């Protein structure tokens, strides 16, 4: 019985690590998007030319 419990704990731990990693990645990508939007808005207010890919 003990090995099954250990396996369940290990699987739960792995799922937790994956979830935390995905959450961190999503949060970071949101921060990058927010910062880029603010920067481009500032460029527009200053009359600077935006990069061609936009």
Short account of what is shown:
With 54 residues, the protein is mainly α.
Report on this structure.
The chain is mostly helical and 54 residues long. The protein is 83% helix and 0% strand. The chain is built from one helix and no strands. The protein starts with a helix and ends in an 8-residue tail after the last helix. The mean pLDDT is 92.
Give the arrangement of secondary structure elements.
Layout: H1 2-46
Helix count, DSSP H or I runs of 4 or more residues: 1
DSSP summary, beta strand count: 0
Multimerization status: single chain
Q: From the alpha-carbon coordinates, what is the Rg to the nearest angstrom?
A: 22 Å
Structural features:
rod-shaped; single chain; 83% helix; 54 residues; mainly alpha; 1 helix
